[in-house]
User: Fold these one by one.
Assistant:
Number 1:
Amino acid sequence: MSILHAGYPQSPIVHFGRHHNVNISQLDLNHLGQVENVPRQVNNSAVGSGGAAFHHLHTSAAPRHVASSEFYDDDEATSPSGGIEICAGGGKMMANLRRHRQREREAYEDDSFSSSDESSGRPMPRYVGRDTDHVFGEFEMDDEDVEMRSGSGRRDEGKCIYGEDTDEDDYEEEESVSELLPLGGGTRRVPRTPRRKNSSKCGFFDYYKLTDEHLGSGAYGSVTTCKSIKSGQEFAVKIVDKQGETHSRKRILREVNIFKTCKGHPNIVQLLDWFEDDTNFYLVMEKMRGGPLLQHILQRGYFTEEEARRVTKDIASALKFMHDRGIAHRDVKPENVLCTDPNHVSPVKLCDLDLASQRRPQHERHPLSQVASEPDLASPVGSAEFMAPEVVDAYVGDALKYDKKCDTWSLGVILYIMLAGYAPFQGQCDDSDCGWSEGKPCEDCQQDLFHRIQDGYYEFPEEEWGMISDEAKDLVSKLLKRDPIDRFNADQILAHRWLQQSAASTILQTPSNLIYRKDSARDVQQMSEHFNMMNRLTDARLSARFDKMTMSDAASDLGTATFHGDGSFLSMGGELFGTFPRKKSVGIAIEKSRSGEFTPPISRASPTTPPPSMLDLSQDLMDSPVKRRSADDSGTYSLFSPASSNGDDDIRSPPILFLDMPSIQLFGADSTVLNSVQMTPRHTTEDEASLNSFEGEQENPIHRVETQVNV
Ligand SMILES: Nc1ncnc2c1ncn2[C@@H]1O[C@H](COP(=O)(O)OP(=O)(O)OP(=O)(O)O)[C@@H](O)[C@H]1O
C-alpha cells in the first residue's frame, strides 16, 4: 500500500462549537497584541466618558488610529477564545483575552497535546479557538510610538465620534485596563454584552481616500495609492476583499505581525496602518514609487553591475534582519523587491510578507503548530522559479525541512537575473506551444524546471557573463548552492568581497534581455505570479470549504477527496486540482511520514502540488488512531475535535478532518483499491472533562466522537 484515499460524504456533522467573528474597524499597528505589555503610566484618555470602545493613538511615523473591536458572532454569543479582544474598551473583555492567551500559551508550551491521555490513549487537544490572539501576542509596544490623540471620544478630524451610540446600560465598570492598553489610566467602561453593530464607522475611509493609481495586484488583493485625508501624503494600500475566496484573517494578521517585527528596517516596506471593515482588510504601507525591480530596470533601459550590487546588498540586509529574528520571507522574487525612487533603482525594499514564517524556539513550539497554527519553514511556499532545491525536494516528497537559506537561494536567482536578464533555471518541455513561458501551466515544463533546480546545474553563458566581474559570479555561485549547508547565509553575503566595495560600472544587457528573450525573467515573473495566484485560490477555496462546511455540505459539495496511489492527481468534488510533479510523491511522503522521516509539507507553491488541506489530510491520517491499527484492528475509537477554526483557513485541526471522513481507502501503486476502512461515527458528546479543563469556556466545546472502524 502506498497511498490513501479519503472519502467525505454521508456522515452526520459534528458540531465544533460556535463560530466567532471579530470585527475590527481599525487597528493600530502598535496596538496589536500590546495589551499585556503596556505600562500603566502611559497617559491617555481617548475613550470618551461614555465608555466608548474606541481609542486614539498615533505614532510619529504615520497616522495612527483607533483600534476597536466589536464582537459579534453568528450565534449571538461571543467568545474570548474566538477572537481578538484587543481594543474594545478593556475590562472584562481584556481579562478574557488575557485568560485566553494564557491558556493558549500553556497549550503551546504543553507538549502533552498530541501525546494524549495515557490511560485511554485518546488524543487530548489543548489548542482551541483561533490563532489570531496568538498572532497578536507577538507584538511588542514601544512607548515612544504611542501618542495620544486628544479629545473625549472624538477623532481629531472630527469625523468619527466614538461611542456615539453607546448605552450606559450596556456598560459596566471593570478593572483598570491601563496596564493593558496604552490608552489612559483609570477605569474603562466596557460593553457588558458585546453587541452587533456596524463597526466600520471609523474605517479606512475616515482617514484615507483612494486614488485611481493602481500599483499592483497579487493573489490576495490589489495595491492602490491612497492619500491621507489629513496630510495629503500618499501611501500604498493593499485591499483584500473579505468576500473573495482568498480572504483569510489569520494570514492577514500574520502578515501584519511580521511587518511589525520588521518595523524600522530601511529595506523592508513599512506597514503604517491597517483596518478591517465588513468587506475588506486594508494594509496601509509606505508607497514605493519606483515600482517592482525588474519593471524599474526595464523602464529605465539601463542597468549596471554596481547597481546590481547595491540592490543585492539591500536585499541581503533585509534578509539578515529577518533571519536574525527567526523569520524567513519565503517568497523572495523580483516582484517583491520594490524600488523606493522612480529615478534610482536603489534603495530597494522587500514587500509581501504574507508568506513569511517566524519560527518559534524549539521549547515554545507546539506539536500541532505545523498543522494548527502557524506555518513552518517546512511548508514549501513561494514561486516556482525561485524555489531552492530543498524546497523542491520537500515539494516532491524527497527531503526534510528547509530553512531560511531558501531566501538566499532566491536572492541568488534574482542576482543572476539582474546580471543577465534571464533566469538560471528554466523549465522546458517538448511542446513549444505549451504556453509555459507565457505564464500558462505546463506539467512537463514544471517537472523539467524542478529537475533542473534539484540538479542545481546552471551556466554563465559567455555572451552575457563575459563582461561581468568574477566577484559577482562568485557570489552567484555561493548562493546557488544546491546544499543549503554550503550556501551563503545573509551574513556571508554581506561580507562577500563583491558587496564590500563598489563594483564596476559595466552596463549590463539585462534590460534588453528582459525584453527580448522568450524565456526571460519577465515571463518567469508572470508565470510565477500565475502559479502563486492559482495555488492560493485553490488553497483558500479548499480551506474555506473545510472551515465552513457542515457534514451535509460536505456530502453535497466536497464529494470525494482522492489521492491516487501513483501520485498522479487528486480531486475534490469532481474538481481536478492538479497533478503531482512526480509520480509516487505523495505515497513517498506518506510512507516517510509513517516512519517519522518526513512531515508532509503544507504546499502552496503551485497548482501542481497537493493543496495544503490535502497534505494536512495525509498528516491527519498518519496521526489518527486508524493508521496505527492493522487490518484486524476493527473497533471503536474516540476522536476528539477542538473547536472549529471559523475564518482562519490556515488552521486545520486533524480530528476535524478525520471525523469528516467516513471511509478511508488504501490504494496500491497502480491505483487499485487495496482496502477500504469504514468509519461510522456513532454519537457525539461534549466531553465535560475537556471543557472543564478550559476553565468553563462554553463557546468552544470539545467534542468527542466514538467511531466504529471496520477494516
Ligand atoms: N508599498 C508598496 N508600494 C508600491 N507598490 C506596492 C507596494 N506593495 C505592493 N506593491 C505592488 O503590489 C504588488 C502586489 O503586492 P503584494 O505582493 O503585497 O500582494 P499579494 O496579494 O500579497 O501578492 P502575492 O500574490 O505576491 O502574495 C507588488 O508586487 C507591488 O508591485
Number 2:
Amino acid sequence: MSLPAVNPTKTEAWKALENHYQNIKEHQMQQVFSEDGKRANRFKIEWQDFYFDFSKNRITDETISLLLKLAEEVKLKEAIDLQFSGAKINKTEDRAVLHTALRNFDSLKPEVKDTLQKMQYFSEKIIGGAHKGFSGKSITDVVNVGIGGSHLGPEMVTEALKCYKNHLNVHFIANIDGDEVAEKLNRLNPETTLFIIVSKSFTTQETLVNASVIRNWFLENTSKDDIQKHFVAVSANVDKAMDFGISADNVFPMPDWVGGRFSLWSAVGLSISCAVGFKNFEAMLFGAFEADKHFKSQPFKKNIPVIMALLSVWYNNFFGAESEAVVPYSHYLHKLVPYLQQAVMESNGKSVDRNGENVNYQTGTIVWGSVGTNAQHAFFQLLHQGTKLIPTDFIGFSEPLHGNLENNNILMANLFAQTEALWEGTQLKTVESTFKHFEGNKPSNTILIKKLTPKNFGSLIALYEHKLFVQGIIWNIFSYDQWGVELGKTVAKTTLKAIENQQLSLLENASTKNLVSKIVEK
Ligand SMILES: O=P(O)(O)OC[C@H]1O[C@](O)(CO)[C@@H](O)[C@@H]1O
C-alpha cells in the first residue's frame, strides 16, 4: 500500500485557505483575541503533563476548520494508519518506517525486546563496574562515535537528562575534524574508556575514519585482543562492523525500518542508557509511546502534533514564512534545536512530490533557535521588530529539577512575557517614538510541560516527529528518505582524491580548483 499522493494546492480547502488568508493577513489579531474571552480556552490542548497553548496565532475558528479540512482532503488519517501498519511508506528506499515499533509497549517485536534486554544487560555492567577494561579497571568514560542521526539524538538526550546522570562521563565524537578528535582523545584514558561506534550503514566516511583513528590510538599501548573490551558497535550492517574488528556479540543491531534521524529509540540510544541508566531510557521510550497513542487516536482538532503541523503549513504556505524558531526555556534542552534541524530539514527539505513531479509550493521550514532566556538577548530583537514573520515555539517546564523556585519563576515569567509581548505589541499603548513601537501580531505556540522527566522528554520528541510527518503528508513529499545528502558525498570523494594525489585535473569546477590549489601548494 502506498501513501496517498494528493497535491495539496488542488484541494478545496487549499483554495478556501487562500481566500481566507486574504481576509486575515492585515488583521491585527490581538484585537480579535481581546474581544473573545474564550479564545485562550478554545485554542489549547491539555494532555497528560502537557499544556499546549496555540491561542496566540493568527487564526480564527474558520482557519482551524479549513486546516482540518485540508488534513482530511490529503487523507492524513489514512497516511497515519499506513505508517503505523508497517507498510513500506519510505517508497524511494523501499522501507517501512517503524521507529514507533521501538517503543510500542503494547506489543514489542521479539527483536526489539532482545535488543532492549541486551542494552540493559550491557549498560548495567558498564555502570556497575562489572565490565572491566584490558587492565582490569572499570569503565569511567563512554564515547559515542557517530554522526547525524547516530549522534544528534543521543547527545541531545544525554544533555537533556543530565540531572538523571550517573558517574560515567559521556562524550561524543562526530565531526571528521581531526582537531576535535585529538582534543577529545587527549583527555581520555584507553584503560577505562568504552567506544560505541554508531553507524546504521557502517559506511559513513566521518564515522569510519574517526573510528580507525581511535582504534590506532587505542592500539598504541594495547593489543588487538583488547579491542573487544573497549569497542562495541551499533549498526544494521553487522558484517561491516565485524570487518572493523568488533565481534558479533559486541554489535547491537538496528533494524532496517528505523531511519537514522529517528533512531535514538533503538540501540543508537546505548550511550543514553549508559549515561542515565536503562530504566530512564525505557521511561523515555514509554513517553514516546504515549505520544504515539495520542497521535494515532485523538481527533485532529485535539491532536497536538497535527495542530502544530497545520499551523506550520498555514504560516509557511499562506503567509510565506520561511522559518520557525524553537526556544526551550531550559538549559538542559540546549541540543534540541540541532536535533530538530536534522529531523525536520533532512525529512522535509524536498522539492519533488510523491508522484515524482516538481512541487510549485513551499515545503520544508527552516528550523532554528536557542535556549531562553539567552536567546532574548540575542535574536529576539528581530522576532519583535524585524521584517520577517517567524512563528516560534516556546517550551517550558513548570517545576524546576533542583528546587530553585526563584529562578524558575523568573524563567517562566520571561517565557510567558515574551509570547505576550510578541503577540500584543504596543498597539494599544502610547509610545514615544516609532523606534519603540512593537507591531505585535507575532505568532507563537507555548508547550508548557510539568517537569523535565525522561518520560515527558520522550513525549516531546515524539510529538515533533509526528509533526514533521504530518507536514510531509500535506506537502505530498516523501519525508523519510534523504537523497539530497548524496551528491556532496560523491563530490567530496573526487575532491579528496585531487587533494591527496595533488591532481587538480580531476576537478572540473574552476572555483574548487583554485581552492584545492591553496591546500596542495602549501
Ligand atoms: O548512521 P549512519 O549510516 O552512519 O548515517 C549517519 C547519517 O548520515 C545520513 O545518512 C545523512 O548523511 C543521515 O541520515 C544519518 O543519520
